[in-house]
Each structure stands twice: as C-alpha cells, then as structure tokens.
Specification:
Blueprint lengths: L125
C-alpha cells in the first residue's frame, strides 16, 4: 500500500482554472424569466442590444455548477475577463487574440450605487 504524497506533482498538461461563466453583455436582454432570485440566470440569446458607450448595465452571469469541498483556510478567487480564460491543453497550442466586435474600455463597477456580488450556494455538514 502506497503512502499519500504530501503534494500532487505538477505533471498534468491539461490544467483548469476552475468553473467559468460567460455572457456577451449585448445579450443581457435575452434573459429568460426566472421564478425567483435564487434560480440560475438562463439566456436564450435570441435578442441583443448594444451598450451605449459610457452607460452602466447590470449583468447576471451564471457560473457553471460544480461541487467543491473546501478545507479550513482554503479560499476562492473570482477573476473577471473580457475573453475566454481557458489554458491551452497541450504545449503546441498557442493562445491567439480573439476576433470580435469589442472596442474601447470595459469597466466593472462595484461598491456605492453599483453593488457587485457573487452568489454561492453553501452546503454545510
């Protein structure tokens, strides 16, 4: 019987950054009706509305569900990006600049009149 190793070796080339959630901001108007605030946002992407430069719009971005057990002292990081943050699965793959219609700066507002939050369902023992 093998003894458990103190650390998992860094040998896997297929790395994960964790769960993702994506929403093109112009598709925010395609949000399907929800029964209550606890229901995960669902978009049909059948309509879109460009955002006027300089305006602030709320976005409900669903994050793909996952089950994770956290030990005491472990934490969670939320990263916000304007592109897919996946890592290449093999060294021969190169990240390229995505081709899309975005122009200008994209700003995430938090605090004051623009409360930002992350909703986490917690299941305790």
């Amino acid at each position: 019987m093998c003894k458990p190793q103190p650390e998992v070796p860094n040998v896997n080339i297929a790395k994960r950054l964790g769960q993702q959630g994506m929403l093109r901001a112009s598709h925010r108007v395609s949000l399907r009706p929800r029964r209550d605030e606890d229901e995960i946002p669902n978009y049909d992407h059948r309509s879109r509305e460009p955002i006027t430069p300089g305006s602030v719009v709320p976005l409900l971005i669903p994050i793909w569900p996952v089950g994770v057990v956290f030990e005491a002292g472990e934490g969670l990081v939320l990263r916000v990006s304007g592109h897919d943050m996946s890592l290449p699965e093999v060294e021969s793959m190169k990240l390229t600049t995505p081709v899309d219609e975005h122009e200008g700066d994209h700003v995430v507002y938090s605090g004051g009149d623009h409360q930002s939050f992350l909703v986490l369902p917690i299941i305790s023992d």
